[in-house]
Amino acid sequence: MTIGTGIVLLVIGAILVFAVNVDVEYVNLDLIGYILMIAGGVVVLLGLIFMMTRRGRNDLPLE
Questions:
Q1: Alpha-carbon distances of 61 from 39, 50, 56, 57, 58, rounded to whole Å
Q2: Whole-model pTM?
């Protein structure tokens, strides 16, 4: 679920940065888009790291 959430954040951020050309007073949509893309990248990386560490623990034999 974390990898999917990260991808969604990346996509929403990219849409805000590259596709939306609206001037909103007091809000910089480009900055919000970049923040969402960075957060999405971090979430995807954390999801991959957690998946790899969990995969290593499941290989232990049951006693």
A1: 37, 20, 12, 10, 8
A2: 0.80
Output the CA torsion sign for 45, 47, 50, 56.
Answer: negative
Spans of all domains in the chain:
2-56
**Cα distance between residue 41 and residue 46, in whole Å:** 9
pLDDT tens digit at each of 63 positions of the chain: 789 999 999 999 999 999 999 888 899 999 999 999 999 999 999 999 988 887 665 555 655
| Helix and strand counts by DSSP (H, E) for the chain | 2, 0
Question: What is the reported pLDDT for 60?
Answer: 57
- Are 9 and 50 contacting, i.e. CB atoms less than 8 angstroms apart? no
> In residues, how long is the chain?
63
